[in-house]
Design goal:
The complex is a heterodimer. By secondary structure, chain A is α/β, with parallel strands linked by helices. Chain A has a single domain, classed as 2-Layer Sandwich (Transcription Regulator spoIIAA). Chain A is 36% helix and 33% strand. In chain A, 33% of the residues are buried. Chain B has helices at residues 3-20, 24-44, 72-86, 90-102, 114-122, and strands at 52-58, 61-70, 127-133, 139-148. The longest helix of chain B is centred in the first third of the chain and has 21 residues, at 24-44. The radius of gyration of chain B is 15 Å and the shape is globular. Classes of the chains: A alpha/beta, B alpha+beta.
């Protein structure tokens, strides 16, 4: 059992997944050439640690940019959380007036059946 | 196309747009379109082929041009797909992109056909695709995206 922390780079987001409290935060930008490779450890972490029925889990997404292959990986990640036993909620942060990121949050909200909060920064 | 070159091009676009575009949201949009054009070039270009990426900024209008050789069948597929997408109004495009996002279909690169939606939508429809056939079994595609910067 361990936390997952990755430093952000000019192409990849910073990641902070913690067990106490159960919280997953992804922030920065996600434009890697190989998004599947980058996101795999994140998916593995969810599989390994999100099995406690009813335990609260907060997911925070604070992305400035992400490419379309990352958007699919993000969908995979949120789907895993959705299917887990946890009582999860998502906070989607976007820069005020950034309609592109607001729309993206609305799209995930429409697809994923988790409580979703769109937060303007 | 070398991924390192893609990164160099993106860093350049970001720096120049940050310096020249006063409107931060417009600057982000330039970067987003550049990201998708370069990703498309990286994923669909022929290996070890000569690719071209141009950025021009003139009087409040940014023009991004991405040109790369592709197999003829890819060129034909892209053209057909592009014409299909262009026939839809923005509101419908958004719903179709959402459907594509929700589908469990993935390409080997991790996407799922979302790149064309993004290129078209983030440039507010101001994008042109030219499919060039060289008649000797080779082809190329060229995207030209125009992004208008408000108040410039």
């Amino acid at each position: 059992m361990s936390d997952l922390r990755l430093e952000g780079t000019s192409k990849t987001p910073s990641v902070e997944f913690t067990l106490e409290p159960m919280c997953m935060t992804i922030s920065g930008r996600s434009i890697p050439e190989n998004s599947i490779e980058f996101f795999q450890p994140l998916l593995d972490w969810v599989d390994a640690h999100c099995g406690v029925a009813g335990k609260p889990l907060e997911v925070n997404i604070r992305l400035e940019y992400f490419n379309t292959s990352s958007s699919k990986c993000l969908m995979d990640l949120l789907r895993r959380v959705e299917k887990s036993a946890m009582t999860a909620s998502v906070n989607w942060y976007y820069e005020s007036e950034d309609e592109d990121m607001l729309e993206a949050g609305e799209d995930y909200d429409a697809i994923i059946e988790l409580p979703f909060r769109l937060v303007a920064m | 196309m070398d991924p390192t070159l893609v990164h160099v091009a993106l860093v350049h676009v970001e720096r120049v747009s940050f310096r020249k575009v006063g409107d931060r949201l417009a600057q982000k949009r330039v970067f987003r379109v550049a990201t998708e054009l370069l990703q498309n070039m990286l994923h669909h270009g022929l290996p070890a082929s000569e690719c071209t990426f141009e950025v021009r900024a003139v009087q409040g209008k940014w023009t991004l041009v991405a040109r790369n050789p592709v197999p003829p069948e890819t060129s034909a597929w892209l053209q057909a797909r592009w014409e299909e997408l262009q026939a839809h109004p923005e509101s419908e495009l958004r719903l179709r992109e959402r459907d594509a996002l929700a589908e469990n279909v993935r390409s080997v690169h991790g996407g799922g056909g979302l790149g064309l939606f993004e290129i078209l939508r983030r440039a507010d429809g101001g994008v042109q695709l030219d499919c060039l056939s060289f008649g000797n079994g080779t082809a190329a595609v060229e995207f030209t995206a125009h992004i208008l910067i408000p108040h410039e």
